Amino acid sequence: MYSLLPVGVFCCCVLLSLNGEVTGNPNDVPLATDIVWSSINFKTILEWKPKPTNYTYTVEVYGKKSNALKSKYCIRTTKTECDLTSVMTNMSDTYTAHVSSVPNQQSEDPEEARYALSPKITPYRDTQIGQPKFSIEINEQKDWIKLLIEDPVSGVRKANGSFMTIREIFRDDFKYRVFYRRASSTGKKEAYTQSNEYKLKIDRGESYCFTVQAIIPSRDVSSQFGQESEMQCSPMETNFLNEYGIGAKLLVCAAVVIVIVAVIITAVVCKKKNDGKKSSNSEGLALNKV
């Protein structure tokens, strides 16, 4: 009589295999790796790898001062990034994200899903401040320059739906550093202002170049400086000689010399003609007397 043990083992293996295909096993899907935060002007995005195959990701955020938070765009997603700006509303809180890998066969997220842990982030301390914009105004006498600085806009919305500026978030913990130099020089100086204006006494006719950078004084030195703005230069007063250089100056000098020579020659010729007429008139008078 043949033993039924091999047949029984085979059947159990088949059943276990089928059961795995139907229900899915969280341990069979890879965990997220290379998890990093990207945060500029409080627009905070979580990124990770790899691109999922036969499974999805669900992201939950936990703050020290808040319960578990989820974005509706980051539940059972096949993307490898998640914008969490809208749920991380307490900007001084410290957050950690759980990136769960969920098999496609799983009908609901398991309570004890396998997840990868993100680094910690405190938006108030860690978000990078983007480039500010500014315009240049010059007074009528052209001896003063005024910079009008525009506060960067954050990714955080007010109750009315509009976006807060960076200044509205940091309030008194915020100022600008201004770099400036003559356009003809490479050495630059710096100054600070807590307002949206900066004034500089200048030499008339000179062009000056500026860049502006936001500063958060309460932060560590490594993260207190924002991105530096694009450089802008004030216009230079130009005339024909300055605009066209030494060639124009030589041309003008040559023209002046030619004019002077022409005037001298004309004067000499006229004098000779006058002298000739006087001589002719004198001779005519002498003959008439005779």
Automatic annotation (TrEMBL):
Q: Where in the cell is it found?
A: Membrane
Which BP terms from GO are recorded?
A: blood coagulation
Q: Name one GO cellular component term.
A: plasma membrane
Using the record's annotation, list all stretches that form the Interferon/interleukin receptor domain: 127-234
* Superkingdom of source: Eukaryota
**Single GO MF annotation:** cytokine receptor activity
Q: Which residues form the signal peptide?
A: 1-24
Name the keywords, alphabetized.
Blood coagulation, Disulfide bond, Glycoprotein, Hemostasis, Lipoprotein, Membrane, Palmitate, Signal, Transmembrane, Transmembrane helix
As for membrane topology, the entry says: Single-pass type I membrane protein
Matching entries from Pfam families are given as: Interfer-bind, Tissue_fac
Question: Which regions form coiled coils?
Answer: none
Record SUPFAM superfamilies: Fibronectin type III (SSF49265)
Segments traversing the membrane: 246-270
**Where in the numbering of this chain does the Fibronectin type-III domain appear?**
11-107
* InterPro entries, alphabetized: FN3_dom, FN3_sf, Ig-like_fold, Interferon/interleukin_rcp_dom, Tissue_factor, Type-II_Cytokine-TF_Rcpt
The record describes its quaternary structure and partners as:
Interacts with HSPE; the interaction, inhibited by heparin, promotes the generation of activated factor X and activates coagulation in the presence of activated factor VII.
Similarity-based family? Belongs to the tissue factor family.
Its biological purpose: Initiates blood coagulation by forming a complex with circulating factor VII or VIIa. The [TF:VIIa] complex activates factors IX or X by specific limited proteolysis. TF plays a role in normal hemostasis by initiating the cell-surface assembly and propagation of the coagulation protease cascade.
Protein name, please? Tissue factor
